[in-house]
Specification:
Elements lengths: L2 H6 L3 H13 L3 E2 L23 E4 L9 E6 L8 E2 L3 E2 L5 E12 L3 E8 L15 E4 L8 E8 L6 E8 L5 E12 L1
The structure holds calcium ion.
Calcium ion (CA) binds next to loops.
Length: 181
């Protein structure tokens, strides 16, 4: 912006214009329910979790509860997923959360897109998985963000917290929010 334009921006009309541009670029929050685990696992699906995930006080980053995943198996993994939200092919989605590792690194947060028939569009075979994998260094609470572009044919998106079948890990998560950018 030139000095001339900056000066003209002192006028109320110009400022209103800036606010408008800013609003047009705003992220669109998706209605992820209970991303802070204050209502236990309400709104999350723990099907196939093998009893590894729980909302507990010791895992709280904010509020009173957070999600602790305790995976002490080399042959089973955990699974908690949000509801599925409408997704538009080509658009970028971002999940934000806080996490820390107690021990291990065999765990990640995924953004998974589905087609209209409920089929997975992100697979190891397609090499297009959106995964933010924890590292053993992440022992302090850290704000994380994982972004993913909805592939062709996308109809829905979900956030999935999954510890791997191979490997053991204990990790905490809290404060999930999901946005369409
Ligand atoms: Ca919390």
């Amino acid at each position: 912006m030139s000095v001339m334009n900056l000066k003209s921006c002192l006028l109320p009309g110009c400022l209103a214009g800036l606010v408008f541009v800013s609003a047009a670029r705003a992220e669109k929050p998706l209605a992820l329910v209970n991303g802070d685990f204050e209502q236990q696992l309400t709104g999350w699906s723990a099907t196939g979790d093998n009893g590894m995930s729980a909302a507990v006080a010791v895992a709280a980053h904010s509020g009173k509860l957070g999600l602790r995943v305790t995976d002490a198996s080399d042959t089973l993994g955990s699974s908690v997923a949000t509801a599925k939200f409408p997704a538009v092919a080509g658009k970028t989605y971002a999940v934000r959360f806080a996490s820390r590792v107690i021990t291990g690194n065999a765990i990640g947060v995924y953004l998974r897109f589905y087609d209209a028939k409920g089929g997975y569009l992100n697979t190891p075979e397609k090499k297009n998985q959106n995964i933010l994998r924890m590292t053993t260094k992440d022992t302090a609470w850290k704000d994380q963000v994982l972004k993913g572009v909805a592939p062709e044919g996308s109809g829905q998106v979900e956030v999935w917290v999954h510890s791997f079948t191979k490997g053991q890990v204990t990790a905490d998560f809290d404060g999930f929010t999901l946005f369409e950018l």
